[in-house]
Amino acid sequence: MKRFGISLALVAIFGFVGCNKPSEPTATSSTKAADDHGHDHGAGGHDHGSEGHGHGVGPHEGTVADWGGGKYHVEFTVDHDKQQATVYVFGSDEKTPAPIDAASIELSIGSPEMQVALKASPQESDPAGKASRFIGTHEKLGVVQEYAGTLTGVIDGTPYSGDFKEEAHGDHAH
Predict the structure, then answer these.
(1) Is 99 a domain residue?
(2) What is the pTM of this model?
(3) CA–CA distance from 11 to each of 1, 3, 65, 76, 107 (Å)?
(4) In this predicted model, what pLDDT tens digit does every residue of 8-64 receive, in sequence order?
(5) What is the CA radius of gyration of the chain?
(6) Domain membership of residue 76 as a residue range
(7) How many domains does the chain divide into?
(8) Which of 63, 72, 161, 171 has the most crowded Cβ, counting Cβ within 10 A?
């Protein structure tokens, strides 16, 4: 009976542990989100869940992170064969492109350590002078692994930063 009481107490304690999402989003807040590892798996995408705030897999099968407490979202994808990272910028719904007036955004990864400037690569639907897609290459992106890092950029003079972490899945891994 004592074990049952301890178990019940632990369930009650952990039941109150939850999302630390700020009630007032700040542009420089950094929120971790982990979903997919950026491979293109074609139609029939799948939701692997995430840490933090329930981000699903991004529209391009990538890992989604918050910018500004959810005002914007960025999706990290990687093509190991091309040694190329592509990041998409979305609005609060995590799927509508949000073209921004920026020439580049920065990708920082801890292991293997690298910094990559991702250059604006406007999609067809982006208005002139803005981009919702940013692409960069680095030889270390050819390493097949789950990456963790930070994406930073500036929108209308406000700096934004978001952490991401790729995770292995039961149906595929690096």
Answers:
(1) yes
(2) 0.69
(3) 15, 12, 29, 35, 39
(4) 333 333 333 333 333 333 343 333 333 333 333 333 333 333 333 456 688 999 999
(5) 18
(6) 22-165
(7) 1
(8) 63
Q: Which residues contact 125 (CB under 8 A, 6 or more apart)?
A: 97, 132
By residue count, the chain amounts to: 174
Tokens of 156: 């209308």
What residues contact residue 73 under an 8 Å CB cut-off, 6+ apart? 55, 58, 64, 65, 66, 67, 89, 90, 91, 92, 94, 162
Distances (CA, A) of 51 to 152, 155, 169: 20, 25, 14
The two three-digit tokens of residue 89, written as one number: 């910028």
DSSP 25-71: --TT----B----S----SS------SSS-----TTS-EEEEETTTT
| Residue 119 covered by a domain | yes
